[in-house]
Amino acid sequence: MAEEGDLVDDAYGSRAEAELPFDITIRSDTTSEELTDILAEERDFLHYIGHIDDDGFRCTDGRLDASQIEDVGVDAFFLNACQSYEQGTALVEAGAIGGIVTVRNVANLGAVKIGRAVAQLLNSGFPLRPALDIARDESIIGCHYIVVGDGGLSIVQPMSGTPYLGDIEQTGEKYKLSLDLFGASPGMGGVFSPHLAGVSEYYLASGSITELVVTGDELDSFLHNENFPVRRNSWLEWSNELSAEHL
């Protein structure tokens, strides 16, 4: 759990300090009263790492059952603990908009991988459900995670306006780039245009853009213009760690 805490702290703070649209507060070893206060305060997002059982959240002085909380100020949450579904559902019923929970026990190593991926994706502007859909592939236990409440909720605005997942395939001396778009509100008619030389078309901010053919230099420029997730060989990577030369 401590490992996940370090990883998600890095993930949520991975944007340049001037670009961070939120303040980050870390609390550990909370009492039931302290956790009650945290859940009651107005805040955009809570990432909980710890233990949950049939009696509720395990605190330093006992258990906190979310069903006993009358009013929750947290908008969105991720309860990365074993069998957190009941507690997450109670948070939604008490006023939260949506969150990610587990329906079974989750192994620590797998939970760390899922937790890190979800943190990175949420920090890049992905809504709850798309973030989880992508992060599930990081571990065999991904199927034990579901969304409760509104899965279309985003906690930050992506730099491009629309979060996207990339796929890259080398074809000779050029590269074929595909993008899956995950607009937070597809019903609002949003549009998206990739920041690529020679591309002037606009696309609906949901669905896929396929077969964009680019040179190595054009790909490198796109990869480093904005940090976004890339699926390579079934694993999730990030564009700022990639280059055309090393694909």
What report would you give on this structure?
- The chain is of the alpha+beta class and 247 residues long.
- It folds into two domains: 2-149, Rossmann fold, CATH 3.40.50.1460; 164-246, no CATH class.
- It has six helices and 14 strands.
- It has helices at 2-12, 32-40, 85-93, 108-123, 128-135, 216-225, and strands at 43-49, 52-53, 56-59, 62-64, 74-80, 98-102, 145-149, 164-171, 174-182, 191-192, 203-204, 206-214, 229-232, 235-238.
- Strands 1-5-6-7 form a four-stranded mixed β-sheet, sandwiched between helices.
- α1 (2-12) packs parallel to α4 and α4 crosses α5.
- The longest helix has 16 residues, at 108-123.
- It is elongated and about 60 Å long.
Which terms summarize this structure?
single chain, 247 residues, alpha+beta, Rossmann fold, 2 domains, 4-stranded mixed beta sheet, 3-stranded antiparallel beta sheet, 6 helices, 14 strands, 29% strand, elongated
